[in-house]
Amino acid sequence: MSKKSAFQKGKFNSAPSLRLGMLIFMVSLLNASLLAQQQKNAKNMTAKEILGNPDYLAISFGGFRDTSREIEPTMAELTEDLRILSAMGIKLLRTYNVYYHEAANLLEAITKLKAENPDFEMYLMLGAWIDCKHPRSNHPHHHEESEQNASEIERAIALANKYPDIVKIIAVGNEAMVKWATSYYVDPYIILNWVNHLQGLKKKGKLPADLWITSSDNFASWGGGGPEYHNDTLNQLIKSVDFISMHTYPMHDTHYNPQFWAVPESESNLTDLGKIDSAMQRSLRYAKSQYESVVHYMKSLGVNKPVHIGETGWATYSNEHYGDEGSRANDEYKSGIYYKQIREWTKKAGIACFFFEAFDEPWKDAKNPMGSENHFGLINIRSQAKYMIWEEVDNGTFKGLTRGGKPITKTFDGNLDSLLKHVKAPIAAHEIKIHH
To answer: Are residues 261 and 254 in contact, defined by beta-carbon separation less than 8 angstroms?
Structure first.
């Protein structure tokens, strides 16, 4: 008789081994499925897909909460801010420099939130600050650049390579070419050289190929203004960037170019709210005209590429040019109207709009706490949502979220009548004074 195998003799029972093998196999399949789902959920959008996408709202971000930038926001504070903005549907932030630690820490905070929740999405237009030589001095040299620029660009490159899933755009300079930035502006060729440098690194594989490069500047600097800006260097820059990031500020021009703002004689019989509503409609048309002037100049060069709004906003308080003793432009009611108008237009038009800004930053004009620069945020330093986003509070958007340990509540206790007591109609046409 042939010998029976060990299995046939019952020395080994195959059933437990089979069950264990099947269990391991099923667990492996489940893990692979979960990983695939996480990878699917963890989107990695490109700048081309993000910019102008109405599902990816943009905003300018600064997380500084004190009167000095020497006191930088902590990781916990940046995480608070990110959760608040994400709850509002904001998915694209614009930062302005990398010489403070804020931008690098912000990227780390985003990375941690993504690790906690693969569905969390937040992308950056990373700003690299550009100065002329001897900026903010009595003798700025606009034809030469600051020795700090090269280091600033190198830091931006390092962060873009370290966080390619988050940094989708590098913006070279902020209002660095507009000539009213008298203390630091540079000749356009300085911006062009850095843009070409970054584009060259992309071609060499030393930066992500789908990283977009631009400069973010006033509409006039992009050809939408006077002939003093129209030159071959600007034309080359327009051809070199991946898209144009232009700024428009009707609010500022209620002082510097107030013809569009003042109440015409034909509307003198309107109620104050009627005058305001009409003035805000004119303000939106003013912003549109500046946007269109840039598009027109670009197309006159035979160029057709995206043009997005890198910055626009409307401060909620001012004790200077735009307040009660000036153009009477600044209050939460007018700011709220502008915010809703600009969002509605840009969403429909497929234009990205980096609204300025997410949170009030008191360092901007530390010597004058009631200066307009300190009051551009959607949320103030007391963790109160301004009139622009009262609806977000009503809708429970911020439920369970805090800023500085405080829940997000509404300014004026959400009472519109109380707010309107602080609102004045714009100046009349006969009150216009032209300021330069």
So the answer is: yes
Residue 85's domain is classified under what CATH number?
3.20.20.80
Residue-number span of the structural domain to which 410 is assigned:
45-431
pTM: 0.90
- For the range 328-331, what are the long-range contacts, defined as Cβ-Cβ under 8 Å and sequence gap of 24 or more? 328/424, 328/425, 328/426, 328/427, 329/251, 329/254, 329/255, 329/261, 329/426, 330/251, 330/372, 330/375, 331/419, 331/422, 331/423, 331/424
**How many other C-beta atoms lie within 10 A of the C-beta of residue 210?**
15
Q: For residues 328-347, b (16+ Cβ closer than 10 Å) or e, as one string?
A: bbbbbbbbbbbbbbbeebbb
4 in a structural domain: no
Number of domains in the chain: 1
CA distance 343 to 347: 6
The per-residue pLDDT string of the chain (436 residues; one tens digit each, 9 = 90 and over) reads 444 444 344 444 555 555 555 555 554 555 444 444 444 445 789 999 999 999 999 999 999 999 999 999 999 999 999 999 999 999 999 999 999 999 999 999 999 999 999 999 999 999 999 999 999 999 999 999 999 999 999 999 999 999 999 999 999 999 999 999 999 999 999 999 999 999 999 999 999 999 999 999 999 999 999 999 999 999 999 999 999 999 999 999 999 999 999 999 999 999 999 999 999 999 999 999 999 999 999 999 999 999 999 999 999 999 999 999 999 999 999 999 999 999 999 999 999 999 999 999 999 999 999 999 999 999 999 999 999 999 999 999 999 999 999 999 999 999 999 999 999 999 998 887 755 5
In a domain, 14, yes or no: no
